[in-house]
Specification:
Strand order of the largest sheet: 1-2-3
Structural class: mainly alpha
Largest sheet: 3 strands, parallel
Shape: globular
Length: about 400
Amino acid sequence: MNSSIPCLLQSHPSVFPALISILRYRPPIPSRFFNNLRHRHTFKCLCTLPPSQSNEPPLPSSSPSPSPLKKRIVSGIQPTGSVHLGNYLGAIKNWIPLQDVYETLFFIVDLHAITLPYDVQELSKATRATAAIYLACGVDVAKASVFVQSHVRAHVELMWLLSSATPIGWLNRMIQFKEKSRKMGDENVGVALLTYPVLMASDILLYQSDLVPVGEDQKQHLELTRELAGRLNFLYGGRKWKKMGGRGGAIFKVPEPLIPPSGARVMSLTDGLSKMSKSAPSDQSRINLLDPKDVVANKIKRCKTDSYPGMEFGNPDRPECNNLLTIYQLVSGKTKEEVSQECQDMNWGTFKTLLADSIIDHLHPIQVRYEEIMSDSAYLDRILVEGATKASSIADATLNNVYQAMGFLKR
């Protein structure tokens, strides 16, 4: 306290009541503050403790300082169709360096695979094959957890809890739902196609994910996840959760997108304006990771090109040229400048041969490793069990917090 205040009170005791009133005054908080809080998701996770205020001496300098916790990343691919070059260059290949920097969980999203008609006999086979491809592409189980989505039941439980707080209008605005339902017709579209973004949110929020690798076409779904995290934090977190016996604060972290600088959107071989897709009717539109080398060479030989001379990046009138140059850059490991200089004077025939050979060389060790993994079913089963066990321990902790915050009777 300022040393002049006691002297002031002695000489002018009449100011004492006024001073007390000033010290006790707290300005009212306007209601718009709470509206802003709701819309801007300003809850913060109480993940760190304040600095110690004790009088204990500091640790000796020889004691190792605790290492900071790694941020967590989750991602996955559906086991429908064949994993293709777009899946690999746009997602899986980018996972590999992330393992050394982040805590990573990569899963096979088999629950998402049933939102559209699917082959029941092939689902389990495709699930195993996708897991093997993860490992063959370089996912290291010493650094990352690999598991099957349906093997962690908390995904479905949290989805139901999130659904209770998801406005239907948020789901109706999803672009992919509009596109797919328009193609199939209302009579052939299941409710799961509308609600699967809530399951995607569950996939992410269960693991308190800091970052989510996404392509440009998935940013809308991640934004829905962020909105749901903020909505649940507002409705049930903070003091409300503390009153229910919890720790208070935010229930969920609000994740951020992690978009790779290149290769996040590999386009079709038959249409440079459409994304390479498993669901495209023509297999000619994509290079599957397990395609034999003669099939790869034939697909590249027949892929769509243009009549312009030379090769160049970035010309909006040449989407196929830009796409094929990008694929070559990614599989060759060269920079954009190196590829531009190497290929600028090539004709299409010369470039296609170069591209096909580069893809074949890049995929060969992946295909060899895949065959080794698939031949040892016990090894693959053990990896998936261990991954699901680790994932469940994280997911169950989050799910228990949500049940508690939402007022459910403890099990």
